Amino acid sequence: MSKLYDVIVIGAGPGGMTAALYASRANLSVLMLDRGIYGGQMNNTAAVENYPGFSSILGPELGQKMYDGATQFGAEYAYGNVTDVQDEGGVKTVTTDEDTYRALAVIIATGAEHRKLGIPGEESYGGRGVSYCAVCDGAFFKNREVVVIGGGDSAVEEGLYLTGLASKVTVIHRRDQLRAQKIIQQRAFANEKMSFIWNAQVEEVVGDDNKVTGVRYRDKVTGEETTVPAAGVFIYVGIKPLTDSFKHLGVLDDAGWIPTDELMATKVPGIFAIGDVRAKTLRQITTAVGEGGQAGQSAFNYLQGLQDATLQDGAVPAAQ
Predict the structure, then answer these.
(1) What is the CA radius of gyration of the chain?
(2) Domain final residue, candidates 182, 204, 235
(3) DSSP state of 249
(4) pTM, whole model, 2 decimals?
(5) What integer pLDDT is reported at residue 313 of this predicted model?
(6) What is the pLDDT of residue 177?
(7) Cβ–Cβ < 8 Å for 202, 172
(8) Do 149 and 54 belong together in one domain?
(9) Of residues 281, 241, 280, the one with CA closest to residue 264
(10) Are residues 202 and 156 in the same domain?
(11) Of 20, 41, 218, 244, which has the fewest Cβ atoms less than 10 A away?
């Protein structure tokens, strides 16, 4: 039978690594599982300028520092694409493509992914002008022209945020009207730094060898193609939580996010969720780290409760 861990953290981004740090520092046996290299989306970030303690730090460098901190108290790390989680009698079984693990508590930190347009230039200019987070990267485009692609709440709100930094923000939308809430639309239309291009099908992100220079789009009514100059392109066509493996646990809302209480606890005792998978509004490294610390402590408190129950009737297994 496989080792029984105190805590398994599914996902080794900033939230998952912080949860592992807190839990292992509390002398719990901890395993981090991730389907890729630790660090998550930080590995695709050229520079992080809004993390306390650093005026600027490379994303992969910050990820390495967090990993070193997460493992210093004994937390283990393993590659694993989690396909299933079962909760049976208080013991959680985590199944990956290759192995099965057991734990008394599970912290879900699998994150979310931005929906892609799938157009030329989107991937090749990622981190060099193409972004999916204005709060993360907007400061790199001070007093420069940028394009926002999308028409929902996120696109328009992030566009408004960018007007405080960029010289001009052009919103390109495939329909003839926005889908954002009316109050948000009113703010956008009243902002002199924002302009709108309607009925536009974005065809390509264009640039030179090192950076974005514009966006080529096709007018869906006339068929005419035009290139809008831009130093940055912010894409907001949806975000998808990576929660398919947890559907049967009953912890997801209708949109696939995981609601939690302020202690990061889900509906299932002993299962916690943090970071971008949570139903919330702000998804940043700092928020994930804060939630990770809380989840690590909450897992410790949960296990203390199990120990108390064991003392009473011996019904709950202890970690081995």
Answers:
(1) 22
(2) 235
(3) G
(4) 0.78
(5) 67
(6) 95
(7) yes
(8) no
(9) 280
(10) yes
(11) 244
**Residues carrying an active site annotation:** 133, 136-137
Paired tokens of 176: 């003839």
SS3 state of residue 299:
helix
Give pLDDT, residue 315: 53
Residue 238's pLDDT is what?
87
Domain identity same for 10 and 109: yes
- In this structure, is residue 176 part of a structural domain? yes
Q: Which 3 state secondary structure label does DSSP give 2?
A: coil
Q: Identify the CATH number of the domain in which residue 35 sits.
A: 3.50.50.60
pLDDT, tens only, 263-280: 999 999 999 999 999 999
Question: What is the distance between the alpha carbons of residues 262 and 128, in angstroms, rounded to a whole number?
Answer: 36
Residue 123 in any domain: the answer is no
Q: Is residue 118 part of a domain?
A: no
Task: Give mean pLDDT, residues 58-83.
Answer: 95
Report the number of distinct structural domains present in the chain: 2
Which of 37-46, 91-100, 173-182, 230-239 is the least confident region?
37-46
Q: What is the 3-state secondary structure (H, E, C) of 106-175?
A: EEECCCEEECCCCCCCCCCCECCCEECCHHHHHHHHCCCEEEEECCCHHHHHHHHHHCCCCCEEEEECCC
